[in-house]
Amino acid sequence: MKLSKQFPLNALRVFEAAARHMSFTRAGEELGMTQTAVSYQIKLLEENIGEPLFLRSPRQIALTQTGERLLPKVSEGFGLLAEAVANARQSGNEVLEIHSAPTFASQWLARHLGSFQLQHPQIAVRLVRGGKMTDFARDGADISIRWGSGPWPGVTCVPLLPVDFSPMLSPQLAESIGGIRHPADLLRLPIIGSSDPWWKIWFAEAGIDDPDLETHRVNDFGEQDLDASAALSGQGVAILTPLLYRDELASGRLIQPFTLRARDGKGQWLIYPENRRNVPKIRAFRQWILKELESEGARIEDGG
């Protein structure tokens, strides 16, 4: 049997309004119905239940014992329905604003967000790239993904993955000098972003303490994704995070001539205000990104 046959919802709505106002007239005014229509709906409900719900007199009405037993549950039920609809409307229009360091945004996050939205279709995502630390009180962000030496005070900081780096270049550029066999071979080519501290760290771990990078200076873009674009076009060698360039490495558009990866102790962090840690959309994103990175084999440290 259909629910509408078992439970005359419209008549119950009229009953709740009439019992709350103790007036068929005022119930009709609230619901946009005539007094006759209200009386008709109450009569239908009484026939459905098999008991009178109101004691009627010329100037007032009063609930019967059956009506008094029915009213609390009907009121509770409509309250729950109103809450459910409000929650559905809110979640249906929910927007998660993410502020992210530029390279992570373009090289990893934008490529994976489709998975998050398939799992949470009620949440729309707005992704904003930027290099500065997010001010949650001013910038409108729900969460931020930042590279650095956290944790930072005043916010919840969840470590996502440590950042490592290694030189990468186009295969054509490598072939232009007969291939790359030793770390010192890289110094025969233009070095993109030669002032980046990562270069000295990597060369030191490769056994070259004084690579004299200034003599190999080429463009310095200040963002890893821009350095990578220059390397892809054959302008020089860039020092990049291999995790963020898996597609380019797999396709052969970039090569990583040495397995050596260096670190400077910094990493990618998920950040959000401490008082918003239980907001459903933030909690959903945190669970998703940790699982997504773990499934790729990225090392994730336990975080708060």
UniProtKB/TrEMBL annotation:
Pfam families: HTH_1 (PF00126), LysR_substrate (PF03466). It comes from Ciceribacter selenitireducens ATCC BAA-1503. Keywords: DNA-binding, Transcription, Transcription regulation. Belongs to the LysR transcriptional regulatory family. Residues 7-64 form the HTH lysR-type domain. One of its GO terms (molecular function) is DNA-binding transcription factor activity. The lineage of its organism: Bacteria, Pseudomonadati, Pseudomonadota, Alphaproteobacteria, Hyphomicrobiales. GO terms for biological process: DNA-templated transcription. Gene3D superfamilies: Periplasmic binding protein-like II, Winged helix-like DNA-binding domain superfamily/Winged helix DNA-binding domain. This is HTH lysR-type domain-containing protein.
